[in-house]
Amino acid sequence: MASLGSVEWRAICDKFTNARNLTDVESRNDPENDPFRSKYKARELLREIYCSLKSFEAGECEEESEGESGEQRPTEPFVDGQRDDLFVQGFSGDSPAGLRAAKLGAVEYYLGVNHVDTEELSAGQEHLMNCLKQLEKCKVSSENVSLFIHVRNQLGILWAGRDETETAQGFLETAESIYQLYMKEDGSPPTDMTEYFTTKEKLLTHQERTKRFEFAYTHTMYYLAQVYKNLGDTERAATYCHSTLQRQLQSNQFNPMEWALNAASLSQYYITKGRYMEGRHCLSAALVVSGLAGEVPSEAAAQESETESERREKLRQERAEISRCWIKYCLNLLQDAKKLLEDNTGELDTDRQEELKRVRKREEEEEEKGRKSALLFGSEDTFDSIASLEEKVSCLFPLDFSEARAIFLVGQNHVKEAKEYFQMDGYVTDHVEILQDHSALFRNLAFFEEDLERRCKMHKRRIDMLEPICNDLNAQYYLLIRRQMMFELAETYSEMMDLKMTRSNRQADTESLDNHTIKKINHLCSSSAKYFQMFLDSLCSPEGKFPEHLEEEVLRPALVARFRVARLYSKLICSLPSVHLDNLNKSLENYKYVAKYCEAHPEAVAAVETELELSKEMVGLLPLKINRLKARMAANN
């Protein structure tokens, strides 16, 4: 029987050390044509360790049976003083049988991870389940609690990878419960699994044990965040993600850019829930932590194997992604403020604005209290940097143009940074999406602008950035993007037309408008109609036939486009009665289309209730107007 310091025991320790080195270090240099060479070698060493442990276990059982009458009896735990050093070094709270089971379970665990890493999932699952069977012989204690959690983490990952989310959830929630119960009832730094096969002089310090144990639990929380996300429980997913990020910062075990991207992604959840304080905090933390990229704050970062140029390129992309998240923050904050302040005509409700300004002072006073209740990132060192970034952009709804402009400028700055990486050449879809967000920033800022001419100029900026791209995009490859842009351009021209008419003359008739203004209004009106019609034409078959049945994703846009074209033709200002008559007939034709389509397809009514009601009204009124015009034309002739 081997004992502490024996040749056999040191051989086991050496094999385990070699297996770990092959897995964690040598495997990174394996050739592409033999990517698992080192891990296969590690597997053989682990199998040898397992066989050695089983032979030791058999020897222990024989010793326990000596002196018996020959009657077969279950193996009893050793009493104090009978434990073999092979199975008790580093332990203090479990029976020898339990400790032997934990060691065998650990080898099964490492074999399971090895098979999973080499894409042999069924074999990996078998070894991991064997580990659980071994642990059934043990009571949870400081000697084995780490293994209890690690094996369930791995099984959670395995089943999640098979899209068996609920099965994964069960393993991970059990791991969470084991951790929480252990910390409540014991809480001492537990033995790490690597110490099962470590000589006495190489045992870990209490600090290192704590670090590794907490890191395992951080992984449990990270995996649970993914599981809850896949189950659709976004609130719990966000809570676990936030706690994971916090723990990673506190333990200084993180990859800076990976952490920053996760924090930026989490901000998007908070934004959709209107929790802008938390969203801003996540984004500010993401910027601060992304600044650490290039330094090596952890083992994870130190293990990067990319070339310097690849690393720089990846950093540029990841920082651009964070900027895109900032754009969404600014855009959503402006949009939500607009919804809060607009009246039933879509204009600024000044009474509501004044009411909100009166309560703003109290809201600002409560902000600090709210901050203390939020989940905050970082140590004292990083928190000051995060706080200074937060001061540069508000998390409160803007109530006037000045406040809205400050948020707009932050968003526009991040638009510039995002576009530097996501350029049109190579990133068409990303570039266009950034342009659309930039346009939306202008659209929402314009809502707060009281000067109609300046508001019109903001919409002109939107047209200038979108129109050239829309016309240059290949219609075959970027059809959906072009449709989005055509519809937005049509709406923008229409809004400019309304602003121009309101600004130019608010009198009862249009005869007082000068020719230049009339020409400008007609140009805007025709341009809007042109892009709406381009959108409608894009829905036609290759033979040019408009579909009899509109698919759900284009149903509302198509009917709204028809309605808006009808309205635009009736708005055109013209001196020739014949041209005016032609425009009114085109207007009536489009109103009739909306009414008839909804009559033939009742399921479409809910998508365009307001437009349908107005269309029916105009179908009744326009023929009268057309007949009166015809009568005047006949009288003049």
From TrEMBL:
Listed GO CC annotations: cytoskeleton
Pfam families, alphabetized: KBP_C
InterPro entries in the record: KBP, TPR-like_helical_dom_sf
Gene3D superfamilies: Tetratricopeptide repeat domain
Subcellular location(s) of the protein: Cytoplasm, Cytoskeleton
GO biological process: central nervous system projection neuron axonogenesis; microtubule cytoskeleton organization; neuron projection maintenance
Keyword tags: Cytoplasm, Cytoskeleton
PANTHER family (UniProt xref): KIF-BINDING PROTEIN, KIF1-BINDING PROTEIN
UniProt function note: Activator of KIF1B plus-end-directed microtubule motor activity. Required for organization of axonal microtubules, and axonal outgrowth and maintenance during peripheral and central nervous system development.
Family listed: Belongs to the KIF-binding protein family.
Name of the protein this chain belongs to: KIF-binding protein
